[in-house]
Write a structure and sequence with these properties.
- The protein is an alpha/beta fold.
- Helices cover 47% and strands 12% of the residues.
- α14 links the parallel β9 and β10.
- The chain folds into two domains: 249 residues, Rossmann fold (3-Layer(aba) Sandwich), CATH 3.40.50; 166 residues, no CATH class.
- The strands form three sheets. A seven-stranded parallel β-sheet has the order 1-3-2-9-10-11-12, sandwiched between helices. Strands 5-4-6 form a three-stranded antiparallel β-sheet.
């Protein structure tokens, strides 16, 4: 099934119309003109803009647009227009993480960091003989635990076995203690040698931040594993894991260890740069074009906004519904900023988010602070229980995509505040002092139906039903979110 160009706009490089993928999907300014001509001919005043998650590839993005268009054109009287703004980021992340996690170097480093960090924190895990401290597990026992679907998920913290420097907050002594423990661990392991580096493929080696673990005597020379650099990096990682637990900003033991390893040694190539590029694209598509810009060099979103302004001026009573999944919420935040700046004479009826991946501060500054600029807001997202059960990259990163964005992809920041995550909307410490989080909590409290946490009860009212248990479930009809959206559009 193909989608009519009356129902989508393909956003190319830098948010313009310039081609960036399958030529069959490319949009032009003339295609957007035709959309408004069709709306005029049909006297259609209800326009819905849909934004898929920005991490998918073009084919999946188009499939999502087709699915949404089919459900909305048969169940409502709106005209849906989907924005296709693919990046293929998730596939890139999965490939990079797979390449990283398959190496003996990473496996060995992970085992040692888990053992030392777990020992200092007093982490106990289930075993065949009952609870056991991670610090007392053998390397083989740690490897067996890492083969589970969710390693180290069933853990408790034994405060009685915690390092005294963790509980007293003496950072200098804690760092020294970690260094001694890690040196002992690798010193007792004959496998921790240069062969770990020699066995890496060129691709795997390129994923490593070499300044953190390797010495290269001169350009073109053989890479040499630097134990001094390894120890320094490991101490930094373990210290950060411990401090996150102490400050109650961890994402669980194993995910937090993974996040800090990736941020310290790999993260530049895991996906942070692409995530930043995608967010920039979500903003750039709406930017005003410099004087003299023409043709495919025009920003696709801005061209739509200009057309919408003219159409609304000529046709009083035009309404807009905005629906976004995941990173699509980022594009909607920037849409609202420019929509308000342009003074478009069209009423925004609904802003509907599904598992929004936008930062909490972006939402607070664009939508939350302009609460009179739309009629209704609703966010469908998973409760933290299901967010924590969603295995984004099985066996490697065992939390949801939103957790990954918060813990890994947001540059130079751990535990970044993401709107769709329940943990940042409960006003629990340590998230009870940030002004943007507090503003968003107040915003959500203005109506009892602004947040729908999945999985809803069987007796949930129409428009408030959602049974999604995974990040990708929301636009699948069988998980009820789309039925709820259709109900909202009709009532």
């Amino acid at each position: 099934m193909s989608l009519s160009k009356l129902n989508y706009i393909d956003v190319g490089a830098n948010g313009t119309f310039n081609p960036s993928g399958n030529p069959a999907y490319d949009s032009t300014p003339a295609d957007v003109d035709q959309i408004f001509a069709d709306l005029q001919q049909k006297n259609q005043k209800k326009i819905l803009l849909y934004f898929h998650g920005g991490l998918v590839g073009e084919e999946n993005a188009m499939a999502s647009a087709i699915l949404i268009t089919d459900q909305l054109t048969t169940g409502t009287d709106v005209h849906p227009i989907s924005f296709i703004w693919e990046t293929d980021l998730l596939e890139t992340i999965e490939q990079n993480l797979g390449n990283i996690a398959s190496t003996d170097f990473f496996k060995k480093l992970l085992e040692k960091i888990i053992k030392v960090a777990g020992s200092k924190l007093g982490i106990d895990v289930d075993s065949v003989v009952g609870k056991r401290g991670v610090g007392n597990l053998s390397d083989e026992e740690i490897r067996l635990e890492l083969q589970k679907e969710a390693p180290f998920d069933n853990y408790t913290i034994n405060s009685g076995t915690r390092s005294v420097n963790v509980t007293t907050g003496n950072d200098r002594y804690l760092t020294d203690e970690i260094e001694v423990s890690f040196e002992t661990e690798i010193g007792d392991d004959d496998e921790f040698n240069n062969q770990l580096i020699d066995r890496l493929t060129p691709l795997q080696l390129n994923l490593i931040n070499k300044d953190k673990v390797i010495n290269v005597p001169q350009p073109g020379a053989r890479s040499i594993l630097s134990l001094a650099k390894i120890i320094k990096s490991a101490v930094t990682i373990i210290f950060k894991v411990i401090k996150r637990f102490v400050n109650k900003r961890d994402h669980g033991f194993y995910p937090t260890v993974m996040e800090e390893i990736l941020r310290e040694i790999y993260v530049a190539d895991v996906g942070t740069a692409l995530w930043g590029f995608m967010k920039t694209k979500g903003e750039m598509m709406w930017l005003e074009d410099p004087a003299g810009t023409s043709g495919l060099n025009q920003h696709a979103g801005r061209y739509l906004l200009n057309g919408l302004k003219s159409y609304a001026d000529a046709n009083p009573g035009v309404t807009i519904d905005l629906v976004g999944h995941s990173a699509g919420a980022i594009a909607i935040c920037f849409f609202m900023r420019e929509y308000l700046n342009m003074g478009i004479n069209a009423r925004v009826r609904n802003i509907i988010f599904m598992a929004p991946a936008c930062r909490s501060d972006l939402f607070a500054g664009t939508i939350g602070s302009n609460r009179n600029s739309f009629d209704r807001f609703r966010m469908f997202t998973m409760s933290d229980f299901y967010e924590s059960q969603d295995r984004c990259v099985p066996l490697i990163y065992t939390r949801s995509l939103l957790y990954m964005i918060s813990g890994i992809l947001e540059k130079d920041e751990f535990d970044a505040y993401i709107l769709g995550m329940q943990r940042y909307l409960l006003k629990d410490p340590p998230y009870d002092t940030d002004p943007d989080l507090l503003a968003n909590i107040d915003f959500m409290a203005l109506a009892s139906d602004r947040i729908v946490y999945a999985v809803t009860d069987d007796n949930a009212l129409p428009g408030l039903q959602c049974t999604a248990k995974k990040h990708g479930d929301f636009h699948d009809k069988k998980f009820l979110t789309m039925d709820s959206i259709v109900y909202m559009l009709n009532h």
